[in-house]
Amino acid sequence: MGQEDRAAMAPRVTTIGLLAAALWAVGCGGPMEPQELARSIQTLQSSAADGVLLANGVARDRTKTTFVRVHARELGEIVDHEAEKLSDADANGEVALRKSQAVDLANKISQSLGQLQVAPDDENGARSAEGQLRSEAQRASRLADSL
Questions:
Q1: Distance from first CA to last CA of the chain, Å, rounded?
Q2: How many C-beta atoms surround the C-beta of residue 101 within 10 A?
Q3: Low-confidence residues of the chain, pLDDT below 70?
Q4: pLDDT of residue 6
Q5: Do residues 126 and 55 lie in contact, with contact meaning Cβ atoms separated by under 8 Å?
């Protein structure tokens, strides 16, 4: 490619770069909308409800420890990912308050799921985790409904 060809391409490359940067900035979207937050909270609620079923199986000695450990880890990863996304999101006003509550809720759900993962054969601990996860699932449902 000759020097003239490179000189002619420079404005195009610059234009493409600026266009890509503009599209990236637009894709970042600004503050979190209530619907986005509601979807994240529904994911937390679903994970907590699934955790209730898992904990109930442990409490009744009807679930294999390997399954409990793996499934609790998977649910915990989902919850932790939602907490990370929520923590990174910008929000204003009422959405910011609800977002903060959702992050707190995610941390509590993760802790309860972690209890199952660490001690997948502890029936008493599972009963405790089941009650906590049930309460957290209900709290998530109320929080999503408030948006």
A1: 58
A2: 17
A3: 1-29
A4: 54
A5: yes
Identify the CA nearest to 82 among candidates 6, 140, 20, 24.
140
Q: Which domain does 3 fall in, by range?
A: 1-30
User: How far apart, in whole angstroms, are the C-alpha atoms of residue 56 and residue 52?
Assistant: 6
Q: How far apart are CA 136 and CA 70, in angstroms?
A: 21
| One domain for residues 88 and 44 | yes
- Asked if 39 and 15 sit in the same domain, the reply is no
**Each residue of 73-114: pLDDT tens digit?**
999 999 999 999 999 999 999 999 999 999 999 999 999 999
Taking the C-alpha atoms of residue 68 and residue 50, their distance in angstroms, rounded to an integer, is: 11
10 Å CB burial of residue 142 (0-12, 13-18, 19+) is exposed
